[in-house]
Amino acid sequence: MAVPKKRVSAQRRNKRRSAVEKITPPTLVECAHCGELKVPHRVCKACGKYGTKKDVRQVIAVKEI
Fold first, then answer.
1. What's the half-sphere exposure (Cβ side, CA atoms, 13 Å) at 55?
2. What would you measure as the largest C-alpha separation in the chain, in angstroms?
3. 54: domain range?
4. Count of domains in the chain?
5. Radius of gyration (Cα) for the chain, nearest Å?
6. Domain annotation covers residue 50
7. Measuring CA to CA, how many Å separate 29 from each of 32, 41, 52?
8. Rounded Cα–Cα distance for residues 28 and 16 (Å)
């Protein structure tokens, strides 16, 4: 079986990965509760809630300005 002769450094690995990340913009979806744009499967930074319209949970407390 083929085995790498030398370890790939973190810098070289990350340079290779960065080309793929620059091609695709981040996917954004609308928050089910407040309507703000957010990354899917993450807590909304605007209202602090997570989930769909059927099952919305308050996960973090958000300060109101």
1. 1
2. 61
3. 26-65
4. 1
5. 19
6. yes
7. 9, 9, 11
8. 25
